[in-house]
Amino acid sequence: DLVRSRGLGDVYKRQVARDITIYDLSGRLVYQRNRAQGPVITIPIDRFSSGTYCIRVSGGDDAKHKLFIVQ
Q1: Cα-flanking dihedrals φ and ψ of residue 53, to 5°?
Q2: Residue closest to 53 by CA, chosen among 71, 41, 70
């Protein structure tokens, strides 16, 4: 399974339900989706203001973090 967003690339590949959170650099939560499932999960980053964000994708005992920029 992939978490993919235009310009973000693949963040996480795993066959479990995932919790997805996105924060801006000030620590403000801007997006959250719990127990997301499916082969591809779409995140509407076109609604975000320009800036740098951190996505956290967790599932089971594993978690991944990645920074991305919205222009």
Answers
A1: -135, 160
A2: 70
